[in-house]
Amino acid sequence: RPTTWLRPDVSPRPSSMSDVEETLKRIQSHKGVQGVIIWNPEGIAIRSTFEPKVTTQYAALLSSLSSKSRSIVRDLDPTNDLTFLRVRTKKGEIMIAPDKDFTLMVLQDPGTEGAV
């Protein structure tokens, strides 16, 4: 599945684009991976393998979940920070890796052998 730059004006710097491409290809090559979204600190998707409507929905809802989870971790211990969030449902698994400049989300079917 090809990835789409949704916001070319906020895409990674050219020197790091090949690293981003390699990482996305590696993640997508795992069995069970259904899609990947990268969003900026404002929750705006800048890269996705999903259709735009699905991308917008996932990015909006999951950026809020990620932000609230980070706040909870910091409220419990101000010296700590959220580094990874995994949510498993009956239909799939959502993995979120927040960072300072962007957040990476992977949706996968955890029942698939060789899943991330």
Structure description:
By secondary structure, the protein is an alpha+beta fold. Helix content is 34%, strand content 25%. The protein has two helices and six strands, in the order βαββαβββ. It has a six-stranded antiparallel β-sheet, with helices on both faces. Strand 5 and strand 6 form a beta hairpin. It is globular and about 35 Å long. It starts with a strand and ends in an 8-residue tail after the last strand. The mean pLDDT is 85.
Element pattern in H and E: EHEEHEEE
Strand order of the largest sheet: 1-3-2-6-5-4
Q: Nearest-angstrom radius of gyration?
A: 14 Å
Helix count from the secondary structure assignment: 2
List segments where confidence is low: pLDDT < 50 over at least 5 consecutive residues. Answer: none
Number of strands: 6
What is the residue-averaged pLDDT?
A: 85
Sheet/helix structural class: alpha+beta
Tell me the major beta sheet: 6 strands, antiparallel
Strand content: 25-35%
Alpha-carbon distance between the two ends: 17 Å
Helix content: 25-40%
Inertia-based shape: globular
